[in-house]
Structure formats: structure tokens, C-alpha cells
Amino acid sequence: EGGRRGQAREPLVGRGVGSFADADEGERFVLTSLVDHLAGASQGQPSLARAAKAVMDELSQSTGETVNLFALEGLQAVCVDHREGLRQVRLVTSVSERRPLHAGACPKAMLASLPLPVQKEVLNELPKYTPATTTTPQALRAELSATLQRGYAVSDLDVDEEARGVGAAIFGAEGDVVGAVSVGGPASRMAPARVAELGEQIIGAARMISRQLGYNGQNS
């Protein structure tokens, strides 16, 4: 989906992926019960959204770009919270938006840390969203390997031809992947050096959220 400008409060998303829009500065999406339902909250542990709140606020202020929080549900990533970018033209995502795991910063960050049998199931079906979407198992495996090596996934025009972003996986108390956090914006603002800089920030953000969820650094 290309860049899009319009009046405040017009529909902000289409075709199930992010889009660009000008929006009223006070416009915020309202969290629903989906947050706690999908975040895997257990008694004594904060939900994913609650654990990530302060980190997302800080990341939004320090980068000025859109920050997204996705939870893992089966073989899909579901947006459970976000912070709109602080600039006039920005990437827009909606709470409850669902995405497959082979495209996008948060989905690929989660997929890279999932067990190989789960990865294999995802690799069986790789729909194409843009010319840059990875749609061959061999290429996606290489991308997932690179993601693990550097610690964050890169979405490079693969769900939106005008957007780039980085995302890192979030782990729960049992060491399993429960979600991912990302930051992204228009490709015009996302040169390679900025992508690398944001990548380091997103790694730190994901680690802090994971610690809030009780993760001690040991995978199950």
C-alpha cells in the first residue's frame, strides 16, 4: 500500500497491512480485551501490553517513529498495542490487525525464534504482498538466520512498498516467544544507517519487555 494523505479520522488501514496517513495528533486507538486475551497474561505476571507500555512510550519519544507491539497467536502475529509516529507522515497500524509470520518486522522476528517444525509449517505458504516479499523457503530461511545473528528482523518494503522497520522478539517467563516489538516509518527516512541504529534500539527494548515478563535469558 503506497503513501496516503487524507483528512483526520478517515480509515487508516487497508488490505490488512500498514499505511501512511496524516492524522489528528490526539487520535489514539482504544485497547480492547484482545490485549490481555492474546498476550498470554497469567496470574502474577503482567500482560504483554502492560509489560511493554513504558518501553514503547520511551521508544516512541526517542525515535519519533511508529512503534508496534504484536503478540503471537498460532501462526499469526496480532497487533495488541502501538504508538503512532510523531511526524506528519507516518506508518499507521491498527490494534487487532493480523499478519502472517513471513513478512513484516515483528512477524519475522518471532518466526526466527520459533522451533524449526513451526517454521517449516509457515514456509509451506508464503503469499506475496509486494515485489520485495520473500516467497521462497530457501530465501526466507536465509533471512531468518540473519535475523538471529544480528538480533532483529528487518522489514524492507515487504508488506508496504514505502515502509521499512525493524523488530525484535519478546520472550515470556518460560522462555517461549510471546510477541515482538518494532519501530518503523517511511522508507524515505529509513536509510541503511538509520535502520541499523534503530535495530540496536529495538533489541534493547525487546530485552526490557522480556525481563518485565519474567524472562531470565534461558530459552525453553
3D structure, described in words:
The chain is an alpha+beta fold and 220 residues long. Helix content is 33%, strand content 22%. The protein has 6 helices and 8 strands. It has helices spanning 34-39, 48-63, 105-112, 116-123, 137-150, 192-212, and strands at 19-21, 66-73, 76-83, 90-92, 98-100, 153-156, 163-171, 177-186. The strands form 2 sheets. Strands 5-3-2-8-7-6 form a 6-stranded antiparallel sheet, sandwiched between helices. A hairpin with a 5-residue loop joins strand 7 (163-171) and strand 8 (177-186). It is globular, with a radius of gyration of 16 Å.
Condensed summary:
With 220 residues, the chain is an alpha+beta fold.
